Amino acid sequence: MDYKSIIPENYFSILDDLTRVTSEIIGKCEVKKTFHFKSGGITLGGNSIYFVKEGALKILFNSKVIRICYENEIIPIHNDSNFKYQTDFSIKISEISEEEILNKNCIIKLLEYYKADQKLNMMLLSLNLPDHPDLHFKYENFKKGDTIIEAGQKSDHIFEMIEGNAVVVSNGKKVGELFPGDIFGEISFLLDIERTASVIAHSNVIVRFLSKQSFEDAIKFNQGLYYTLAKGLAKRLVNVNKIVK
């Protein structure tokens, strides 16, 4: 489907307005608290303002995805029970209190944001968007000392740590650690090569994994997944460089 043929011309100008206002608000106001959510449904409420710190958040209306909020985007809070919030991977969401908005004289900017956001939602709800594909995750338990993935093996799956922690080992040396929310196995997954390192459970863990086909289907609807992978790879590279030094 050619989305440009169904999206109104002023859609992107409204997005630009939202980005500009959001940057101004986040730039002036201090964060009260940052929450770390695992994959699944998320409940947000109260008078605070929330924005995505890391990851991507889907907004659903009547079980259909109408919008995805990426990093440094304010999350529009809807009291309508038909709206739901969901994430496929772990996510960090930061909170800015109502008092902080008032103290930093950002209330006018916030009203400007809500006005643009309302226009955007009306546009998105009027479009006949295709359903978001289900991600067919599988889950597996490992005991402390178990090898989750082994260097040299080939696999078409990508993994996420759900509970517990693990160590990454390459050539007999520890080169990293994995905690809940971390994605791993992505190098061989993306490049279709053998595993470059082993991952060994450091405690009892639960992981979930996704096939390459399911991931490719999801990417068509959520380009932010590539950003999530790239950020994880960059973080791991920094840790490896520290170890080498």
Written description of the protein model:
α1 runs antiparallel to α3. The strands form 4 sheets. The chain has a 4-stranded antiparallel beta sheet, covered by helices on one side. The chain has a 4-stranded antiparallel beta sheet with strand order 8-15-10-13. It has helices at 11-28, 98-103, 107-126, 186-191, 212-219, 224-244; strands spanning 33-37, 40-42, 49-54, 57-61, 64-69, 83-87, 91-96, 138-142, 147-149, 157-163, 166-170, 173-178, 183-184, 198-201, 205-211. With 245 residues, the chain is of the alpha+beta class. The protein contains 6 helices and 15 strands.
Task: Give the topology, please.
Blueprint: H1 11-28, E1 33-37, E2 40-42, E3 49-54, E4 57-61, E5 64-69, E6 83-87, E7 91-96, H2 98-103, H3 107-126, E8 138-142, E9 147-149, E10 157-163, E11 166-170, E12 173-178, E13 183-184, H4 186-191, E14 198-201, E15 205-211, H5 212-219, H6 224-244
Antiparallel strand pairs: 1-7, 2-6, 3-7, 4-5, 4-6, 8-15, 9-14, 10-13, 10-15, 11-12, 11-14
Helix pairs in contact: 1-3
